Amino acid sequence: EAQVTQNPRYLITVTGKKLTVTCSQNMNHEYMSWYRQDPGLGLRQIYYSMNVEVTDKGDVPEGYKVSRKEKRNFPLILESPSPNQTSLYFCASSPPQSYNEQFFGPGTRLTVL
Amino acid sequence: SQQGEEDPQALSIQEGENATMNCSYKTSINNLQWYRQNSGRGLVHLILIRSNEREKHSGRLRVTLDTSKKSSSLLITASRAADTASYFCATRFGTSGSRLTFGEGTQLTVNP
């Protein structure tokens, strides 16, 4: 089944404890992206990647890192999480033909205490 | 600030009625997309309209685009309770069209 998977789906952690949220897609998509969703603010793009080893900042990259060593994986890294990073995170990918329709993962709900 | 803004923020209708949601944006776009999100789930792509198109249909969905007013509307005809969800417009812009910016969404409730 074609899909975007994220792990974990739910995470509660404490300030300063490094964490990684994994994202994987099995559709051979070149484009991948991370968003965070907050009440009243909609979805905001954190980072995106046009292809392997090519990443770029979105609207809210501060406090986040990403890597794209393989086409299928695009992990989101929080080196030192803070409470303002408590949010619902979505990974998405797009087909190689055009960067149009995005396929979204199920989301990761992160709480930083 | 957000490139796309939806209006209204919330809409409640009866099953069988039509639902219209609007989206306004600020800069020139390559295309505009509408997504649906059921509570707590990931977004699902509904329809895309390119900047040189004015209207597009997909099943019970009808999307219009007015680039002179920088606005779009999504019409869901003969709504069903299962249409209850949040609906987001997203605009793709930039020289490479790689950036996709979402609005805050319209929460649609269809009462049976």
Report strand % of chain B. Answer: over 45%
Low-confidence stretches of chain A: none
Q: Look at the structure and give the mean pLDDT of chain B.
A: 90
Give me the secondary-structure category of chain A.
mainly beta
Binned, the helix content of chain A reads: under 10%
Greatest interface (CB-CB under 8 A), with counts per chain? A-B, 26 and 22 residues
Distance between the termini of chain A: 36 Å
Written as H for each helix and E for each strand, in order along the chain, the element string of chain B is: EEEEEEEEEEE
Structure, described:
The complex is a heterodimer of chains A (113) and B (112). Chain A is globular and about 40 Å long. Chain A has 113 residues and is mostly beta strands. The relative contact order of chain A is 0.33. Helices cover 0% and strands 50% of the residues of chain A. The N and C termini of chain A lie far apart (36 Å). Chain B is an all-beta fold. In chain B, 0% of the residues lie in helices and 59% in strands. Chain B has no helices and eleven strands. Chain B has strands spanning 4-7, 10-14, 19-25, 31-37, 43-50, 55-58, 61-66, 71-76, 85-93, 99-102, 106-111. In chain B, the strands form two sheets. In chain B, strands 2, 4, 5, 9, 10 and 11 form a six-stranded mixed β-sheet that branches. The N and C termini of chain B lie far apart (36 Å). Classes of the chains: A mainly beta (113), B mainly beta (112). Chain A binds chain B through residues 4, 31, 33, 35, 40-45, 48, 50, 56, 58-59, 90, 92, 99-107, and chain B through 2, 31, 33, 40-45, 48, 88, 92, 96-105.
